[in-house]
Amino acid sequence: MARKTSFFDFWSRKRERGEFMERANQLSLLPTELKRLLGDSGVRLALKSSRMVSLLPPVGTEVYRRLTQSSLKNKEVSDRASCPAPELEAGKPLPFTFGAPPPELLHTPLEDLDPFYQSQKTFIVLAKGSDLIRFHAADSCSLFSPFSFTRRGAINLFRFFVLMTILINCVFMTFNDPPEWSQTVEYVFLSVYTLELVLKVLSRGFCVGRFSFLWNPWNWLDVLVISTGFLSVFADLGKCSVLKTIPRILKIIPVLPGPKMTFGALIQSVKRLVGVVVMTALCLSVFALIAQISFMGSLKNKCYYFVPTNLSSLNSPENQYFAPHHIDALTCSNSTGGGICPDGFTCIRGGVNPNYGFTNFDSMGWSMLTLLRILTRDFLDNLLPLMVRTGTYHMTLFFMAIVFSACFLLRCLMVTVVAMAFGEWEAESFAEAKQRDEEFRLIMDALKRSEEEEQAACRAALSPSQDEAEKKSNEGRCPLLPSACCCGGWPRLKLWLSNPFFDLGIVAFLVVNIVFMAMEHYPMRDRFEEMLSDAHLVFTAVFMVEMVVKLVALGLCGYLQVGWNIFESIIVAVSLLELSLIDTQSFGLLRCLRLLRVFRLARWWPGFLLFLKLIWRCLQSLKNLAVLLAIAVFTFSVAGMTLFGSSYKECSCRISSDCGLPRWHMNDFSHSFLLVFRALWGDWALTLWDCMEVSGQAGCLIYYTLIIGIGNLLMVNLFLVLLLSSFDHLTVPEKKNSLQIAVGTIRRTLWALMGKKKKDVASETPASDIEEDKRKEYLALTSVRAEQPGSEDTCIQRRVPIAEAELEFNVNGVEEEEEKQRKCEDVPDKEHKQLKGNTPEDCCSHKCYRCCPFLDIDTSRRPGTVWSNFRKTCLFIVQNKHFTIFIIVIIVLSSTVLVCEDVYLPHRPTLKEIVQRADQLFTVLFLTEMLLKWIGLGMKKYFTDVWCWVDFLILQVSLVCLMADVFGFYELGGFCSLRALIPLRILSRCPGLRAVLQTLVWTVPSMLKVVPLFLTLWLVFSVLGVNLFAGKFYYCYNETSEQIFHLKDVSNKSDCYTAMMWYNDTIQWTNSRYTFDSVLNGFLSLLVYSTSHDQGMHLMYSAADSTQVESQPANEANFFMSLFFVLFIIVSFFIINVFIRSIVDKLQTDKMGGKYLFMTEQQRTVNQWLIRQPQTPVPRPQNRCRAGLYALVSSPWFEVVMVTVICLNVLTLMLETDDDSQDKEIILYWAQFCFIVLFLIEVILKITAVGRHYFTSNWNLLDFTVTLLAVVGVFLQDLLVNYFVSLYYSCVLRLARIWRILHLFRFTRGIRKLLLSFMMSLPALLNIGFLLLMVTVSFAVFGMFNFALVKTDGMLDSVNFETFGSSLAFMFMVASSDMVERLLATPPHCDPDTENPGFTVRGNCSPPMLTVAFFTSYFLISSLLVVHMIIAVVMETFNSEDDEPISKAELPMFYKTWKRFDPEGSQFIPYSELSDLCDALEEPMRIPKPNSITLTHMDLPLVSGDRVHWKDILEAVAAQVSCDSSHLETIRSGMEEKFPSEVTYEPISSSRRRKQEEVAALVILRWYRKKRLAHHNQYS
After folding, report:
1. 122 strand-pairing partners
2. Please, where are the H alpha helices in 1042-1183?
3. What is the pLDDT of residues 440-461, one digit of tens each?
4. How many angstroms separate the CA atoms of 523 and 532, rounded?
5. pTM here?
6. Nearest-CA neighbor of 1088 among 692, 740, 1381, 1429?
7. Distance CA 1357, CA 903 (A)
8. What is the pLDDT of residues 1030-1056, one digit of tens each?
9. Residue 838 and residue 787: Cα distance in Å, rounded?
10. Is the distance from CB of 1041 to CB of 1055 less than 8 angstroms?
11. CA–CA dist 393, 401 (Å, integer)
């Protein structure tokens, strides 16, 4: 893939590339064609330029020749190849030109096919599938020659046997307590691995030769397996036995060719990720330092009952306050805005940090671990409240906004880089496939010409009589037809089955059957359950009759030829088996198989069929990557069980209150597997804390770091490969199926019965009218224009101000819009000026004037003239840009008034009065704006714009609320909360936001097509959940002890009711909060599991503990039911992929790729100018002293020294911890003081050297600002803290020192390029981010109006909906974590009758439906915007150029390098030194070796003596590095200043022509040498 290829070009050609590559991989020659190619010298001569044909042996020679003693002697250096052929590399299948090898030659030593290796004493062995394996022909181990029986036997190593041995060994690895005889099996495995290693050494040799045993890195696994295996025999390795198990698992990769190649491709993508990984580490370090300085020791603030006097009372849990259902003490803060303690408790710093002491910012290491949680968005519903309570939510919100943005952008860059690496790999594969296809076409053309020439020669030799006889014989021949299986059948029944209404009836029965399956719930009445059972019998009978009818009509052979018929027969057989086993334990499992009938809908539902094909295609195309992922999960599971399994059992009391094994542990393989799967899905923090608590910190941190790193790499690659390649050949058929035909027939019949012919009229409607109807559909979103009445030129039009507030959709395509623009540009500006003051359009439509003629006012007379002038004045006002600015200011002020209406407003009468008056004023102003637009634009124009409708409806809400407030109708409080939409009025006034909204509106229809598929799959899982878990989530609960009864004490519902009689109301038989008792509850449970980690885990726990209906659950009694949720996650992975693909497909198919997505053209132009502008070099001072300082500060060594000082400064900041001693603090203080002095000296030196030019560099401005803040922080910090700012905000001065680390980006070209490419997407990110902010503000205000009085969790007393700040923080937490559960308060967790002073509303409970709808809508909208942000980053970074522009700053470097090759200043260098010159240049002008092909393509002019001029080299290098030639003249003029005079020259040749001459001379020389050799052999 060329780097100039845009993302949409790459996306649109995906299907074409896939089909082409699949076709190229299946190329093959017929035996007759292959025989002619190998034996016809004329064909070989015609194909002498073909690379694949040049690899074939000479004519008359066998392709596959057994290795003999004579074949290894007298081998001369081949003149046909100077390097190995890529087509004949080891491990690759043979090219199609060689044909399939004979079966008897497989696994047999053969002569090497590559001309390069034929003189190096090598031989090959062809395995099954024509895979090539190359060996060295020297004696292996100096004992066995290639012809010895021992070595030949060692070569025939059976790969399948080794693979089965490894798999059986992996099964034994999963045993937690292996049996006694397992040690004997271990000896067998070790013997097999030893035998394999010996055979490999015998076949390849140990270390001598390129293809020997030790030269292959994969063979080192065998060495490690054998060494650790024998070591474990003589010593007990303990936990170190993981070094024995992991290499054995990894041996699967080299045994399987597919995963082995995919692993190599992953390693190549890792190389591209180095820059992102380094940048991620730097950013995490910077933000970890910021968090450490801001929150160091703050998480130790806790609420104490009395002031502790010693260490024991400080750490005593009895002295600390614990919120209900929390294991950590309640954190607090003594600063304004932080969390407060309950009455009687004091906030004191002491004790340990939360979560076993692992969640803190007290040191650099813990701070980075916490930042890694933020990067992966894990367990943030615990971290964010802790940070808010221990600090101020303003600073926490600011910090988290920056950190979340940076982490999100880093993840986007990681996805982008992997996508670019995949694109490059696919481009290379496509280039190879294209080359194979060209070679194949060339060979086929040559064979066809040879055959035609031979036939022409034969016809010329034959007599006319013989020719006529041959024609007659050919006419008498009859081709043999293959015999077909003719099965019987009834034609009439077959005709009846082909009727579309038969399929319609089947689909109707399927839909009704699905409805009946969805009606199951718990508890059900006996009569209802019998009705469902009878309905199931009826449906089973119907589908069985369908199967029998099809068998009779089509016959057995015809029936089985259709795959859907086989699938239907399987479902019928399962249903019949279910009826026969209705009273057995297998009945429940067979009931679940009824859901297979849902998939029958795919036969008539193209979208569903496409999704099922996708899954099947993914299982085929992603098998290699899926195998690698499975190997990684299995490896981590076995390693975790080996390393930490015993620790969970021995130290369980540290993490479990009953000293039993927790739910998430690694004591056995099944739990270890689920734990690894959970960590791969992004939920790893809780299990990491448990692991560190029971097994130590170092091992667990390394283990989880590997899981997160390798797992995320595999998951990202899996997602991108699925997104970019698996849909290549999957398209929805355009032909209507039988169901669509039947529905169309019924629709036409109904219209005919109703006496209408709508379909006929629609079919006769011309295309232009159809396009006009499409335009009317989007009329609400199209531009509003005021055209001159009576003018026929539609281009002469004037935009009204409301056109600044609408979305401009191009319904008829980009070409039509460009044509309109070209026509409009032909209109002179004078005509536009004349039209500027024309009369506005009519107020009403023509229908209104016909119904009410009095509305049509004659403007030619006196009353009408006044009205016309008044409308012109109103139109002039609304057209004025200052009026638009005034309205924006009013919107901002009105939104500010809205945020003041918090829960404390009724207790502030003065502020309440001001807010009410301001609200009335703004309402009147918005009403005035509407009236001006009604009069100036007209009612017709106003009500045909969507944004005018939005303004109108919001204004109506404000007017209704204003009247309700005046007349005392306080019951409309819920309706008045819709005033939260007022901030959204500003969206229509921002062009960038309109661009984002335009893109969103374009993609919504395609996303809606995925919704039915999404709901269908969720319906399947919901019904399956009802069949598996209905009525099984109930439990007997003791409200006094707040514990669930054990199964030994209470076994079922009856025992629980018996216990109620003894304990009265303290015991309840209750149900879980989220269940699968009905399909609707199942949908809600799946939604909670998808969005909430905490409640999702509780849902999985309930499923794993479920036993029977109305029975008490037991701990992990049904553990493998957790696989239900694992399967749901995997299917959701595919659904998300389809969802994202639908968005990108819509953007590409609607030709939106030709326009700027998510940004305006002006924004993109300004952004490109800011990024690509060249840096002006600083002139050298004339003063001798300043010139010396200039040479010093501009020296590369000076920059290296300063960067080293910066790194040391950052390292000293990292050494700070919360428990530092006083001596350490003094040392670090004076170290920082020395660094500040050094930075101050640097600034003084640079200002002295370059003067005012110092402030023209952005890096210098950064250094100056950081140094200034550091000096202020050192010398004036005490003064500022005592008199101006608080100590909490004074840490900003210390944070300024960190930003000097950004200088490292200047010396890392890869990261710098990545950042420059990423900066291209910055305008789009800002637009989407601002839209997300506006949506968040509106939702925050709406939540403040509706949920301010809701009772929240004790940990969230400072983050709620009481004020706008806390409401905004809460919405921010909702978007980043699962905080919804903290607000969904329902009885008995709240009191619905409590009084709220100052409010007429009673109770502190949240309305469930409104709460779920509120948070679900916000979650969906925010997720949609985040997905579009990812697409914007990937698209813009993908489209950006990979190289930096050349500016005048690189000219001294070029001149300095040129002087080394041209010391005399002749302005020419020999062409032979050009390669060394280009390699000696510095970045970005350097072209590293090997660069001969690149230099040849430059086509440089050559003068006499094979010399090249500097100007031609500079222009060629500039064009090679960057296609932008705007600064080329400036660069050339700057370089000419370096030379005293211009030398004229006349080219006589070029580098490309010279290369052609060299190749031609080489061909002639080879031909001459071959003829001389043949002549010598003939006479000798």
Report:
1. 136
2. 1053-1063, 1079-1091, 1093-1105, 1123-1149, 1161-1172
3. 888 888 888 888 877 787 777 6
4. 14
5. 0.75
6. 1381
7. 14
8. 989 999 988 777 788 888 888 888 888
9. 9
10. no
11. 12
